[in-house]
Write a structure and sequence with these properties.
The complex is a heterodimer of chains A (about 325) and B (about 500).
Chain A (H helix, E strand, L loop, with lengths): L1 H8 L5 H6 L3 H5 L5 E5 L6 H17 L3 E5 L6 H9 L6 E6 L1 H8 L12 E11 L1 E4 L7 H10 L4 E4 L5 H13 L4 E4 L4 H8 L5 E2 L3 H9 L4 E5 L24 E9 L4 H16 L1 H7 L5 E5 L1 H22 L5
Chain B lengths: L1 H10 L2 H19 L5 H12 L4 H18 L1 H7 L5 H15 L3 H35 L3 H18 L4 H16 L16 H4 L4 H19 L14 H11 L1 H15 L6 H14 L12 H17 L1 H7 L5 H12 L6 H6 L1 H29 L7 H20 L2 H19 L4 H24 L6 H4 L1 H25 L3 H4 L1
Helix pairs in contact in B: 1-19, 2-4, 2-19, 3-4, 3-17, 4-17, 4-19, 5-6, 5-7, 6-7, 6-14, 6-15, 6-22, 7-12, 7-13, 7-15, 7-16, 7-19, 8-9, 8-14, 8-22, 8-24, 9-22, 11-20, 11-21, 11-22, 13-14, 13-15, 14-15, 20-21
Classes of the chains: A alpha/beta (about 325), B mainly alpha (about 500).
């Protein structure tokens, strides 16, 4: 927190020149545009975040940052491409928790290893999921759990097998000791649609997709999956208040292929931290309910290990595999 | 009323008007490049919207996407490279008109009826958005299932070949749609251990392959046709007014079907275009002319396509539920600009909403003059010698496919589907029916499986729900109609008695 405050104070200083003094490798970098690989299609949530970040950090790096979409196979195609790219500082990756979830879903080895193939730079944003029920549904988490115990034949909606919404729901089922049937839809917006009309009894969409509908009374929110309350819906309690230790968030991070020069990593981190410290940028980027994280390279690795445990457990309890 | 005036004031800012004009030109140019879809055009605009005021930012997205969807018809009509799955429904018809020397007529129809569809769709948004949104909410997977099945039935209607061959092509399309891991069970199917196949077959490379590459291959085998007669058309629009009068009923039918299908987040412009083209043919008095370069289908499908685009904004603005990839991007921009989509947007930010409506109308009006310029420029390509054009088409197909995923595998797919399309057409199997199978296949499977999970494996809800039962009756009726007609024809003396 202090570090971010200091960066905020120093926002006017030429951060680039400070970093440039750190090594000769960084002195020449970047001499041409840097590409930021996004393993999802244009218009997806990670894509929108990547484009905002790319635009904001480019001036600090002194070169354009070009977003390149490599969608498909739940992100695996893009992750693999980033893992194989030359670690010369000219390829960055927008990593998400799919980097952790996808390998857990399969016994086959994918073309990348989240720990071996990537150098962590900055976890920029996090987004909790929201437990939603139809407007006429239970009024509290306790009431929902009681209802699911009484009628275990109810359904929950997700955006597909192995999606964040699917795993969050399975984690919830395991922790609360309840049953519900998984209805995998084609994409996250279908969750909101089906719960709003009462065709499916509950769901765990990302907070952003449901916020306005909760405010307008078209959906009832019973809890957020993050450990703390969210600024977009301050009246909704964390699920952890009822089920202690419940903490699942989707995150968006800047990473690089393993072996990227440390000076480059520091400079990209500084540029991202600088962006996050800019109040106007942060307000714009977090208007949808995501939170600015700003976890630098030193603490990112530990974060990644903890995330692997959490999502690994979620995959185990869900029994979801793609083999 | 004050909201409306405020809305006008919001739009009448110089920065907003400039943003509309520039993004219109941008959308027209990018959309007309084969393989660069309207979605891509919109995604590339996102970084620029950071610098704009909220209304100007949304204006660029609305304008550029409407323009790009229309100009996607240009390579379809001139070179048989459909820009979107929606324009694939009528690409063959438009291309047939081009070969008859009526390229400007075909493109003019696309332009004129797109603009009308866009404006009528916008009016539906203004007048009935909340009503339409509630209707869309009542559509569940059961109704979507019947809709997808109804869409597939169009296969036999859109083709000019034997129904059996059309169905065979459609089934091949369904098989292609099975490929990949993105099915309800999350099981990899027909991937042969290849990571590239895990994501399934993208529609755009398949589309470009079966239409454009197969066309180039056919051209290599046949002697050059006599040059297209050089005709001066005078005004592109003059002919359109006659078409509007002549085909008024199909046009309105297209608009209405487009609006209804457009507000359903699961359906969208693709389905609207296919269903409308089939309806135009089914109810036409000159059915035998379809497929030979007859504008009637273009009128109905073009209107329907763009009406659905406008009404597709209803669930996006009211619930934040995107109907397609373009509105998904638009929702991101709305959030960034503090115009969070949701029911309160209509009440608390009413003047902003009116501003958006005005921008929709404005975009569809300036589409006409700018579109005419674009058509005039683009039709020069028809005067170029074939030997020069064909290699460029192959190059554009490859580049366009690469652009969709920045992936060499897509280029390979274009080649494979090109060969497949060539063999199929040589033997009378319509490729359009296969594309329909690819587009509808995953939706059909998805809605069927999720419906069964929701109903605990009971098939009753497929017929119980009111809208579902109507759609079921329509689908089953359409499926059995040829048989019933045949049986009725065989009853002796029926004619005499009637």
């Amino acid at each position: 927190m202090r570090r971010r405050a200091m960066l905020a104070l120093g926002a006017g200083l030429p951060v680039a020149s400070v970093a440039r003094a750190q090594g000769s490798a960084a002195a020449a970098w970047p001499s041409r545009p840097v590409r930021l690989l996004v393993p999802f299609i244009p218009g997806s949530a990670p894509d929108v975040i990547a484009r905002q970040l790319a635009e904001r950090i480019a001036p600090a790096l002194g070169q354009p940052v070009v977003v390149e979409n490599r969608g498909g196979a739940g992100g695996n195609i893009g992750f693999e491409a980033a893992a194989r790219a030359a670690p010369d500082g000219y390829t960055l990756l927008l990593g998400t928790n799919s980097l952790i979830i996808n390998p857990a879903l399969t016994r086959r080895s994918l073309g990348f290893d989240a720990f071996r193939d990537f150098a962590p730079i900055t976890v920029a944003f996090a987004m909790p999921h929201l437990l939603i029920v139809p407007p006429g549904g239970p009024d509290s988490l306790a009431a929902l759990i009681a209802s699911l115990r009484a009628r275990p034949d109810q359904n929950y909606a997700s955006g597909g097998n192995g999606s964040g919404a699917h795993l969050a729901a399975e984690m919830f089922k395991a922790r609360a000791g309840v049953q519900a049937t998984h209805v995998p839809f084609r994409g996250a917006p279908d969750i909101v649609n089906n719960v709003m009309s009462g065709q499916v009894q509950l769901g765990f969409p990302t907070l952003a997709t449901a916020t306005e509908l909760v405010r307008a009374g078209r959906l009832k929110a019973l809890g957020v999956t993050s450990a703390a309350r969210n600024h977009a819906l301050p009246n909704v309690p964390p699920i952890a208040e009822t089920l202690p230790g419940f903490d699942l968030v989707s995150w968006f991070a800047v990473m690089a292929p393993a072996g990227t020069p440390p000076a480059v990593i520091l400079r990209v981190d500084a540029a991202v931290q600088d962006a996050l410290a800019d109040a106007a940028f942060r307000a714009r980027a977090t208007a949808d309910g995501s939170t600015a994280v700003g976890l630098g390279p030193d603490r990112f690795a530990a974060f990644l290990r903890r995330e692997a445990e959490i999502w690994g457990e979620a995959v185990r309890v869900s029994g979801a595999t793609v083999d | 009323m004050t909201h409306l005036i405020e809305g006008f004031n919001l739009v009448a800012q110089p920065d907003v008007l400039l943003a509309i004009l520039l993004s219109a030109v941008y959308g027209l140019v990018v959309g007309s490049l084969p393989g660069l879809s309207a979605t891509m055009a919109t995604a590339l605009l996102v970084p620029f919207t950071f610098y704009l005021s909220p209304i100007a930012a949304v204006a660029t997205i609305i304008t550029a996407s409407a323009m790009a969807i229309f100009s996607g018809d240009i390579p379809g009509a001139l070179l048989r490279i459909p820009g979107t799955p929606a324009s694939a429904a009528y690409t063959d018809e438009a291309y047939a008109m081009t070969r008859k020397g009526q390229a400007e007529m075909a493109l003019g129809a696309g332009l004129w009826f797109s603009a009308i569809g866009g404006i009528v769709g916008t009016l539906s948004l203004v007048l009935m958005a909340p009503l339409l949104a509630e209707m869309a909410l009542n559509f569940s997977s059961f109704e979507y299932f019947w809709l997808a099945l109804l869409g597939l039935m169009c296969a036999t209607l859109v083709a000019r070949s034997s129904p059996v061959k059309a169905i065979a092509s459609m089934l091949l399309g369904l098989l292609v749609a099975c490929i990949g891991i993105e099915n309800p069970a999350g099981t990899p199917r027909f991937t042969f251990g290849l990571t590239d196949l895990l994501g399934g077959i993208e529609v755009i490379p398949a589309l470009v392959g079966v239409f454009a590459v197969s066309e180039v291959m056919r051209a290599m085998l046949t002697p050059p046709p006599p040059p297209i007669p050089k005709r001066q058309f005078g005004s592109i629009l003059a002919g359109q007014w006659q078409l509007t009068k002549k085909y008024q009923w199909p046009m309105w039918r297209g608009n209405i079907v487009g609006i209804i299908i457009g507000v359903l987040p699961g359906a969208g412009a693709d389905m609207a275009a296919w269903i409308s083209y089939s309806m135009a043919k089914r109810f036409s008095k000159e059915r035998e002319k379809f497929g030979t370069g007859h504008p009637e289908g273009l009128v109905e499908a073009g209107a329907s396509n763009n009406a659905s685009l406008a009404s597709g904004w209803v669930p996006s603005l009211l619930f934040g539920i995107p109907g397609d990839t373009i509105t998904a991007i638009a929702i991101g921009v709305l959030y960034m600009k503090g115009l969070n989509p949701g029911p309160t947007l209509f009440t608390e930010r009413a003047s902003s909403m009116y501003a958006l409506y005005i921008i929709f109308i404005l975009a569809n009006i300036i589409m006409i003059p700018l579109g005419i310029v674009m058509i005039r420029l683009a039709s020069h390509i028809l005067r170029a010698p074939r030997a020069a054009v064909m290699p460029v088409i192959v190059l554009l197909c490859a580049v366009g496919a690469f652009a969709t995923g920045a992936n060499l595998f897509s280029v390979l797919l274009v080649a494979v589907f090109g060969c497949l399309g060539f063999v199929m057409e040589r033997n009378g199997y319509p490729v359009a029916a296969m594309v329909l199978g690819i587009v509808m296949g995953s939706m059909l499977e998805q809605t069927f499986v999720t419906s069964l999970i929701k109903s605990d494996n009971s098939v009753l809800p497929f017929f119980e729900r009111p809208v579902a039962s109507v759609l079921a009756a329509l689908t089953l009726g359409a499926a059995s109609w040829p048989l019933i007609a045949w049986l009725l024809g065989r009853i002796p003396g029926r004619r005499a008695a009637g």
